[in-house]
Design goal:
Length: 163
Amino acid sequence: MKHLVLTALLALGAAASAQTPVTVQDAWVRGTVAQQHATGAFMRLTAAQPARLVQASSPVAGVTEIHEMAMDNNVMRMRQIAGLDLAAGQTVELKPGGLHVMLMDLKQPLQAGQNVPITLVFEDANRLRHTQQIVATVRALAGGHGGGHGGGGGHGHGGGHRH
């Protein structure tokens, strides 16, 4: 029995050390107004080892996607991406007008000061997935760094969402 317990503890320790630690800093979500169905979540991600952000989810949104803003024929467009590569030791900033987590089909307006739980799923170099829970604070609609997630404008999330 002792051998079985020791083996189980060693296996748990190996699994924990195999996780891809990603430091998440300054996580925030842009506040919304009534009838606004989408907003962005922003943060800084730093991986200790090479990793890839492959999925996100939140109970406040029916759909959560990883997005980027990119120029397409001299027009800035937002599109979903399959994942976001994180080089070891390099900080990647998710910010308005750039890379971000898109929260769509919001279940209610998000007011400044609220906390939004977000689950991030990272994949390591061996393609093993690791889940990380974070809490992002909602900032006032006018807060943040500008860029198109406020008031339902900028990205045309009222129905013209293009990928």
